[in-house]
């Protein structure tokens, strides 16, 4: 009985905490966007880019390893992972959560594209990059969408575990994946550091927003 009451209190408080996190994360994104727009990030953006170039020059394996890890945040890989995650959630009787993951990824990708177009920031000079890519830079799509996917799925899976250490491990793993993928984008020289920080902020906020929506759907329709 006590465990059930504790679980109910935790379930009731989680959406409120998630909503507070949404406001915090998206507020952080807005602050970074303002700083970037006024070139306040230029100094440390350039310093991070030069440091990454030096690190690749002195550690030849870094380039190869970063390329492999970066692929975990690519559109084809995240699309595949999204389909698998949604399929799994449907199989275990959680269609509302499967829909939340799918729609979070689709709307997140559209939002990132719109933000890139709105800010119109160019990528770093190709001479500093180990991997030359086309397109705009702010926010980082890899950092944004990996945060949306891994944090959304990590949170939904963690909810199915009662023990704190299990939930903590799952959330730590989700955060680690998002951070790792974002770091690779700076290390490869395809994004400024502020692009990645903004991507993390946006992606974390978007994931928390869809956690709130999934919680509302669950409350409205019952378990699912």
Automatic annotation (TrEMBL):
Coiled coil: none annotated. SUPFAM superfamilies: Acid phosphatase/Vanadium-dependent haloperoxidase. Gene3D superfamilies: Phosphatidic acid phosphatase type 2/haloperoxidase. CDD domains: PAP2_like_2. Keywords: Membrane, Transmembrane, Transmembrane helix. It comes from the Bacteria. It holds the Pfam family PAP2. SMART domains: acidPPc. Residues 95-211 form the Phosphatidic acid phosphatase type 2/haloperoxidase domain. The chain crosses the membrane at residues 69-91, 98-119, 139-157, 169-191, 197-217. PANTHER family: AT30094P (PTHR14969:SF13), SPHINGOSINE-1-PHOSPHATE PHOSPHOHYDROLASE (PTHR14969). This is Phosphatase PAP2 family protein. It comes from Pelomonas lactea. The lineage of its organism: Bacteria, Pseudomonadati, Pseudomonadota, Betaproteobacteria, Burkholderiales.
């Amino acid at each position: 009985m006590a465990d059930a009451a504790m679980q109910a209190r935790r379930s009731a408080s989680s959406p409120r905490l998630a909503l507070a996190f949404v406001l915090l994360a998206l507020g952080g994104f807005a602050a970074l966007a303002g700083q970037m727009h006024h070139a306040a990030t230029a100094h440390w953006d350039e310093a991070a880019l030069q440091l990454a170039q030096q690190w690749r020059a002195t550690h030849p394996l870094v380039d190869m390893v970063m390329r492999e890890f970066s692929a975990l945040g690519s559109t084809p890989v995240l699309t595949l992972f999204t389909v698998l995650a949604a399929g799994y959630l449907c199989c275990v009787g959680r269609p509302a959560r499967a829909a939340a993951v799918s729609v979070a990824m689709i709307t997140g990708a559209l939002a990132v594209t719109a933000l890139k177009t709105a800010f119109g920031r160019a990528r770093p000079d190709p001479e500093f990059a180990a991997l030359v890519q086309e397109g705009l830079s702010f926010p980082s799509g890899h950092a944004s969408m990996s945060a949306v996917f891994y944090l959304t799925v990590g949170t939904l899976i963690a909810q199915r575990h009662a023990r704190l250490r299990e939930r903590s491990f799952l959330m730590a793993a989700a955060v680690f994946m998002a951070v790792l993928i974002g770091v690779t984008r700076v290390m490869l020289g395809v994004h400024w550091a502020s692009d990645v920080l903004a991507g993390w902020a946006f992606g974390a906020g978007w994931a928390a927003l869809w956690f709130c929506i999934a919680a509302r759907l669950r409350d409205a329709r019952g378990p699912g």
